[in-house]
Amino acid sequence: MLADRGEASLRSIAVGKATLRPSWIGAELRLDGVEQRMLSIGGIVVVFACVIAGYLMEKGKIGVLLQPAELLIIGGAAIGTLLAANPVRILKKIVAGLMDVLKGSPFQKKRYLETLKMMFDLLAKSRKEGAIAIEGDIEEPDKSPVLSKYPTFLNDHHARDFVCDTMRMAITGGVSAFDVDQMMELDMEVHHHSATQPSQALTTMADALPGLGIVAAVLGVVVTMGSLGGPPEEIGHKVAAALVGTFLGILLCYGMVGPLASNMSKVVDDEQGYYHVLRVVMLAFIKGTSPILAVEMGRRAIPEHARPSFIEVEKACRGKNVEPVAEAAAA
Question: Are 93 and 198 in contact (CB under 8 A)?
Answer without folding.
Answer: yes
